[in-house]
Amino acid sequence: MEEEKKPDESLSIKTQSSPCLIFFYEMKKQRYQTFFNLSKGCYIRNIEQMQNVMCFPTPQGWMLIVHPHDKYCYLFDPLTMSKKNLPSLHLEAGPITNLVCVLSSSPTEENCTVLCADMDKKLLFFCQDGDTKWTFYKYNLGDHNLSNVAACDGKFYGLTMQVNFATIDCSPNPRINILEPLNFHWPVGTSATISYLVESCGEMYSVERYKRAYKSNKTTHISVKKRDSSRQAWDTVYSIGGRVILLGWDDSSASWSASELGVKGDCIYYVETNDKRVYCFDLEEGCISVHMPCPRLQPSGLTPIWILPAS
């Protein structure tokens, strides 16, 4: 395994063209980021834009950066250092707790919509290029509550805690429309699950990560379903087209070409809370393997996040 490099020996981020997992840690009162590439190993950076801020990844690679005091925010690509300003959140959003962010397209394109979902507050807020403020939508779905959001072909979709699929309309009339249930079957010996909604090559997938108990830090099984839009139904699959799915701790997720990463396809990569290891679930074999990406990595209490090259 490639040895973790010191900051002054690190590879240039601009040379990286595939997803990385970022681990955060502090050294000499500076916050550094250890970037782990599944096929190229680890290297360390100190990115000023990621200091003392809240960082929320998107499946499109751009990262939502929010300053905790004045709520100044922007989209940031840590691989190319590109930046796209957004309206400040001010006080309307309140304290940000459990946020997921997705984009309808690349923010360099016209009519790109940035959608954020605060799951704890049942709050959506979104903006488009040129907007001077965010639009806020406090939703009420009765017994339902969103747990995940995703974008596909310029449209937004959601997954509820009751594991129902939903469409999300933003401007001009915000609305959430609950559609069909996914009907997952719990494996024997599990009593807790984390759900993800993932777009991959224009297809919608749902991933269920099962655990023995709610506070357990060990995943025992992963199940994947693919949506058949013509039937409005979800079918269990054991292949995701030779790609991999990357699951974050905060309900974020993304997919990528396994061949470009140099790893086996049809696998799910994920991390556990307060754990510096990377896990891989092989859909075909039904087994879990463990990667120890950066042996000398010091734990910081901050959970790592996946980032992709920005689209």
TrEMBL record:
<feature type="domain" description="KIB1-4 beta-propeller">
    <location>
        <begin position="35"/>
        <end position="279"/>
    </location>
</feature>
<protein>
    <recommendedName>
        <fullName>KIB1-4 beta-propeller domain-containing protein</fullName>
    </recommendedName>
</protein>
<dbReference type="Pfam" id="PF03478">
    <property type="entry name" value="Beta-prop_KIB1-4"/>
</dbReference>
<dbReference type="InterPro" id="IPR005174">
    <property type="entry name" value="KIB1-4_b-propeller"/>
</dbReference>
